[in-house]
Fold this sequence. Notes:
- With about 550 residues, the protein is α+β, with helices and mostly antiparallel strands.
- It folds into four domains: about 1-95, no CATH class; about 100-245, Phosphorylase Kinase, domain 1 (2-Layer Sandwich), CATH 3.30.200; about 265-435, no CATH class; about 490-540.
- It has helices at about 1-10, 10-25, 30-35, 55-65, 70-80, 85-95, 105-115, 120-125, 160-180, 190-205, 205-220, 255-260, 265-285, 315-330, 335-345, 350-365, 375-385, 395-410, 420, 425-435, 435-470, 485-490, 495-515, 520-540; strands spanning about 125, 135, 140-145, 150-155, 225-230, 240-245, 285, 295-300, 300-305, 310-315.
- A hairpin with a 3-residue loop joins strand 8 (about 295-300) and strand 9 (about 300-305).
- Belongs to the protein kinase superfamily. ADCK protein kinase family.
Amino acid sequence: MLKTAFVAARDRQRLSEIASVLIGFGLNKAVDRLGLRNIPLIPRRTPRVDVTRLSQPERLRRAIETLGPTFIKFGQILASRPDLLSPIWTDELEKLHSQVKPIPWEMIGPQLESDLGAPPQEVFAEFDVNPIASASIAQVYRARLKTGEEVVVKVLRPGLKKVIEADLRLMGHGARIVESEWPEMARYQPQEQMKHLAAGINGELDLLNEARNCEMIAGIFEGRDDILIPKIHWEWCSERVLVQEFVHGVSPNDAAALRAMGADKKVLAQKGCDAFLRMALIEGVFHADPHPGNLLILPGNRIGFIDFGIVGRLSQKRRQQLLVLIGAMLKQDVDGLMATLLDWTGPTAPDLTKLEQSAQNFVQTHSSIPLNLGLVLTDFMTMARENDLAMPTDLAILFKGLVTADGVMRQLDPNFDLFSAAGPTVRASMRSVFSARALLKKAEALGTGLYGAASELPTLIHLLLVRLKQGKVTVEIELKGMDKLVRGIERGAARVAVGLVVAAFATQLAPRLIDLGTPVFVLIALAVSVVGIGWLVLLGRNR
Length: 543
């Protein structure tokens, strides 16, 4: 294909490297299915281990680590999607990490000096050239401003953007191939997944985006002393540099430090839960990865959030759906679970009998109190996968965040029940969703829509009558294994069509027109109903 040839020519070196790594780790089937076999390869990388001793998931994980940050990010996303992959794959991909060996100061120093406009030793009162953290995207250094404030300086790795942009182009092209050539993979929505990955990584490549995210979250907790979001020092920030307040805190995993601090773990668990749910359910924007490294405990039972490279967002509609799901889970409502899942997963055709049985098993499994939210959400996504349904990306991000947050809260308080702890926040969210003001806005929108529909109604009725006269209003009914009935339905299609239209008009539209109280609308409603019924009588006599 011409497009494939163009992509290969544009990024030939990187494509060859990807192919050689996949072949080197014994992932030959993937190479063949993606059409990479005939691409001229650079010298094959030799794995450090005997790949014949590795399982397929292990080979994939090792290959992803070798291919670098773009693939690592993609693997981490897949690790959080039990609705897409079975546990044997997600468990292995969870071992992926972004912590990598730091690059020497000699390689990153000149770039930082260029971005700051002067050597960092001149810009800051103190600057430690030894990084305190090194990830696949950036390295972090500790410094002190001339005003005395302690800060961290986050710096993008040099030369990374070009490689990542090539990876995203190639992976996007690969997603299109997978979706078109592998029908069984279509439900995974590979192109949609790639759009999400590209948006996330491009956001991380612009540290100004992280700074904006940080200030946006800080605005949510403005006026609260128990939640700390680091201050951004904008005068030194740029696309490749982020300077923010250094947060003095300890990890929720450090039991000894928490004891020495005199921390109340139960109080902290409740506060952490409230903070995360306030972001997600009320504000619709939340920290997408609240793991122990990004959530710090401070003296006075305070909590600090750091690292806002990626945030999740939920629309108002999605938050309402989430409240419905939580209610269905708490009420053990099988029908509610099925309806929510089918609504989220779009135009699919699952086996409803199988789905109902899965929902019943889910409810029975999680009928005890207190509920373990991590297990509940993981099993919910597993139920989706087993019924060939895929979760929307925004919800998958939220569920990953909730599972991670629940794990941290349980480390603080082993008896923590997020469902119970979420009560106040859920009630506040429901008040905002179903408040008089919110309902009034919906009523206004509905009125506007009805006014528009009423203005178009004469034209629509005229077109409907024309179509009826032309016999172009049809009903398709497919009943497998009942050929005789199908033939009978086909012979009476016109009668059925007219009957359905008249019935719908008489029971639904006509009463609404009459309720409007406008004489013209009332006459139209009565006239159309009488004409339609008369037409049915004539059709019945002529059969």
